[in-house]
Write a sequence for this structure.
């Protein structure tokens, strides 16, 4: 299965980070060591996202990315181009396509929006049916929480039609998950129902697991300043240094500060800090219906 990597801290060169250590993300593409069922190498493409600081005071950083459907070791741009770009945050991934899913550039993480970058390591079995059901649940969450016909109507409408899933840039579970997640991120407000990116990840994972308990959902999200991640089935380790933090499917070196993260956790990281809390399950729909 795919391997991913997130960094926040002082500026690093994107390509250097991807090739850093004897067990770098680059090496993990052909010699991963913790694949936990399914897949042997990550040769179905790769990608990296980095952020450009805005010249406007207070404005958010803008994300840029590079992706290629070819194996990472065939692309000299990793060293020759990405090796010269600097960023305070990076999200990078190498892909092992789930059987039946297309091998194309648009299917390679990171998926991005103006400010966000996202990677998914895992699979949602029967994703076409499951994610339509997840969308319907999210629609109910917003309809129940927001009054009708107010300025919040845009947020109410976010998940009102499954047609939104057609915006996925590739016919993969990961691209469709990104459509749902970026909708939740766009709907963040202090009043809720979604109040933070961590909240958005928690709601998405819990809703997918309610419909598909066998889903594997190691998600990684960044906005150039923070990283957020979940563990659900696959491996993830964290390295918290004085002034930077790295989240990685597998440690890239033997630094004793690497810590493996347990399953079913929600992680928030900033430079030099990381908080890890349990992911919560949602109650079953039948229990909720019985109560309402
Ligand atoms: N299911 C996703 C894809 O096919 C992610 C695969 C993975 O984690 N190996 O792109």
């Amino acid at each position: 299965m795919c391997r991913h990597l997130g960094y926040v801290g002082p500026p690093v060169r994107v390509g250097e980070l991807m090739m850093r250590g004897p067990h770098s993300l680059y090496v993990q593409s052909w010699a991963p060591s913790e694949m936990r069922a399914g897949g042997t190498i990550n040769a179905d493409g790769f990608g990296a996202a980095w952020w450009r600081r805005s010249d406007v005071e207070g404005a958010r950083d803008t994300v840029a990315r590079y992706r290629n459907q070819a194996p990472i070791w065939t692309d000299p741009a990793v060293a020759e181009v990405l090796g010269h770009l600097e960023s305070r945050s990076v999200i990078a991934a190498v892909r092992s396509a789930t059987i039946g899913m297309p091998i194309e550039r648009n299917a390679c993480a990171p998926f991005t929006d103006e400010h966000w970058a996202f990677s998914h390591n895992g699979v949602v079995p029967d994703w076409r049916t499951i994610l339509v059901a997840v969308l319907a649940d999210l629609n109910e969450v917003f309809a129940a929480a927001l009054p009708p016909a107010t300025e919040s109507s845009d947020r109410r409408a976010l998940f009102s039609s499954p047609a939104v899933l057609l915006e996925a840039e590739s016919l993969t579970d990961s691209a469709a998950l990104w459509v749902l997640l970026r909708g939740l991120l766009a709907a963040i407000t202090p009043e809720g129902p979604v109040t933070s990116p961590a909240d958005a990840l928690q709601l998405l994972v819990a809703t997918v697991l309610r419909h598909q308990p066998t889903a594997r959902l190691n998600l990684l999200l960044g906005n150039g300043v923070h990283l957020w991640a979940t563990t659900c089935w696959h491996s993830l380790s964290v390295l918290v240094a004085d002034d930077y933090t790295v989240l990685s499917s597998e440690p890239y070196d033997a630094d004793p500060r690497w810590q493996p993260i347990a399953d079913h956790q929600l992680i928030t990281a900033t430079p030099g800090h990381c908080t890890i809390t349990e992911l919560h399950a949602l109650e079953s729909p039948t229990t909720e219906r019985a109560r309402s």
Summary: DSSP finds eight helices and 13 strands in the chain. The pocket of glutamine is lined by residues 1-2, 39, 95-98, 101, 107, 120-123, 172-174 (CB under 6 Å).
